[in-house]
Model the fold of this input.
Amino acid sequence: MTKGCSSSAEIESLKEWAESQLDSLEYHCEGNFNWSPLNGDAGFRRYFRTQTTPPFMVALSPPETEDNPAFVNIAAFLRENGIHVPKVLAHDYERGFLLEEDLGETLFFDCLTTENVEVLYGEALFTLLRIQQCKTTSLFSSYNQAFLLTEMRLLQEWMVDKLLGMTLSDDETAMLDGFYSLIVDSALEQPQVIVHRDFHSKNMVYCEDGSTGVIDFQGALSGPFTYDLASLLKDCYLRWEPEQVRRWAIAYANMAIDVGILKPVSEEQFLRWFDWMGLQRHIKVLGLFARLALRDGKEGYLRELPRVVRYVEEVVERYPQLDDFASWFKQQLLPALKKQPWFSQA
Done:
């Protein structure tokens, strides 16, 4: 059985619990309490949308794998600070049951076009600015050196070793360690702000009132200023022209300077922060998506990797400091990836 599957009895218990919670909260819904399952995300949560008026979201979020108290507490914090995230109406931490406000079905990913991207990304960037203006609290752990390194080392464990069956030499391992150190140093020298950690087109909702909703924020930490910006503008699920991305990034940096989040820095330094932070994320994703395919049976993630590979190539070609990694990536990793059937099909 694939991880994340749930028994029909457990789902029926979730349904009964959610209906009873709505009754106790005196929500008067029209229609029968039926629901439809939503496509799963990268975690082990399962979501259902009630077919009522108004609709609600019901989540089965296994407490052994998901930090549900963090989700509830971070949701409350963000809402208090004017960020449009779902209101958690009820929760059962022991069983991993959550009842949430439904922000709607239209993700940015589903409606972005070349005609509306400037407007929608403008809204997303203003939302990010509001998040980064929030003061960090003890609710948000540090996105520190150990955390950043652990994420990048997913590349070696899950892609290089388990997906591609490659064995690294001592020299290659040493080269990667040096590369990781450069990326981590760049991340930690940036201003530290609240970081959503998955701020992209599939985690933003275009709401019926025209506002921008934010979901999947339970992994938020206190970390590097450019992380969420790179996650949004160098999205693993869609791509925009590099010059357009550069223009958006610089415009955001100027807004952040205006409101005091960022002290004035040279354009060169800011773009290095931005590019290398995106590189850290994409190196992690190469390993993470391989793990989702191999461990969790979510093979569809592999088809997103050619786009991620392209992001990596573009950045390492731009910075001479990364030449050793660039050579290894092009000469060793890329040929092995191109032999994979899912890579050529994508």
In short: The chain has a mean pLDDT of 93. The first strand starts at residue 35 and ends at 37. The chain is about 50% helix and 10% strand.
